[in-house]
Amino acid sequence: GTEQGLAALHKRTSVEQNLRAVATLKALDVMFQFGFMLVDPASTFESVRGNVNFLRAIVGDGSAAAVFCRMVPYDGTPIREALARSGRLRGDACRPGYDFLDPRLEDFWDELVGLTSLNGRVEGYGAVSAPLNWAWNEAAVMARLFPALDGLEAYRARLRALTRAANAMLFDVIEDVARTHAEGGPHGWSVATLERVYARLESEMLAGRNGFVARHQAALLEAMAAGPA
Hints:
The structure is a single chain. By secondary structure, this protein is mainly alpha-helical. The chain is 61% helix and 5% strand. The strands form two sheets. It has a two-stranded parallel sheet. A hairpin with a 4-residue loop joins strand 3 (89-91) and strand 4. The N and C termini lie far apart (43 Å).
């Protein structure tokens, strides 16, 4: 999401190209998902804010549930060798890691992991991003492969609203926790607070999804039984 990060990871693309790619998919009504490295060995608190701004630009509208991870320096990659030469490489081949240039970022990342159930890689085993993206996949299949279903657009609009709310809260958490570690002061977030909100969002998503599928179960089963046209 920043030119600095793209250059550090040798992505050979620009922020503007990435934004245009997402805009093209949206214009074509093509569902998309993504992986996103929020932090890497060259990260600063400024780059974290830039990455959150990028995420807001591509999925702030609720078009997909936001996910993120920490860049992992795998064996055989130039960035791992550079970290080794500089003395910043940590861990082993199974769990490689590194020191940030700004040690405050390690504390930021550790707290963010604890708050958002990261489990070391992707936001979300305890969060709502996985079921939301699952629901988006199912809705895309129904839209493309089955007969027109009454209320599908309304269901997708509701799914978009729930995804937008989940993303907005996640972005606020990242920014507030980063601000605390960069500037000091409390941020006000807790695991209990996030769990309550995620549980409510997931419950609303499942109620909407199950209700929609139940209303159209006969048509869906008939279409599947008929097979390809």
